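User: Structure please.
Assistant: Input sequence and predicted structure:
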Amino acid sequence: MTVPHHPAPARPDDAVDPLDLLAVLGRRRRRLLLWPVAAAVLAAGVSLALPETYTGVTRVLTPQQAPSSSAALLNQLGGLAGVTGGALGVKNPNDLYIGLLRSEVVADGLIERFGLKDVYRARYQVDARKELAASTRLDSEKSGLLVIEVDARNPALAADMANAYVERLQKLTSALAVTEAAQRRLFFEGQLRQATEQLAGAEVELRRAIEAGGMVSVQAQVGGAVETVARLRAQISASEIRLGFMRSYASAENPDVRRAEQELASMRRELFRLESGAGAGEAHGPRGTGGRDESGMANLRLAREVKYREVMFELLAKQYELARVEESKEAPLVQVVDPARPPERRTRPKRTLMVLASAALALLAAVLSAFAQDALEIAARDPTRQARLAALRAAWGRRP
């Protein structure tokens, strides 16, 4: 039985045979060997000529803005405690410290200490700052640690500069109030200074009134009412401060805001009732007639103002002392986890990577050039391809 013979299908002219491609590469195998070797040697020479760069790395732990232990004690001071409850905290502490590290104060300190203008060959201070910023990398890890990396030509210099960043940060944070307790202490320090001046002024006015009109006695009931009214006025002032702060971040429909408004309105009604009763007592309380009555009422009002200032001073003084105690108990602002040490290996240049990448690119260029040269040789022997090339040159060379 005769088996029919089926001829192989004809291959189109434009089909690419892998064997033909290998044959093209084989005819130009010297190029495939020489080009990568030459590129590798050239890359090795360039990498040896490049200056070596070392990286100093240090990791630090920044203080986390957790609620302080004195938060519960502050509640006894009423509305004033709410002013500093959560407004002074920072959501991401590392962002704050990264901003401090990028400040000009820190940069100028490092430039002056290590003579970086000469190291970077910078004529102006601003150019040295730019070079230092380009050589420094600041990053916040997921673990919460702050990583400081500094590049330098000398391994010891790289480590010293990374550690110097930490030292400058510690000095800067010690001079600035970046923690909750420090900010609270500064806030109440200013309020206490203002309250002291106001109390001194009220006492001076009362003393002048007594010296001018003489000492006017008042009833014991009126004297007790003065203290009650003064304390209630101080509580109202504290509540107003707290409510004003709450309105800066909450709407009028917020339950806390509405509750604070109701408490403030209730205290104001109580103050009005007490002042009305005290006013009735003032009309009959002071001994004497005529000018003595008017002098007694004026003295009573001044005495009530002095008592109010004394209560406000007492509240602020307690708050200020609590903030000072809390600040003194805080841990160091910046704790070094991994101090920078002189690196044993350079960071750049990566000579092995440069040599391998250059050799790979040269090999790719040799392969492409081999195929391009073979295509041009084939086109030179084929009239049809020559006509196509002529038309292509004419199309691109024709002026519009």
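The two ends are 70 Å apart (CA to CA).
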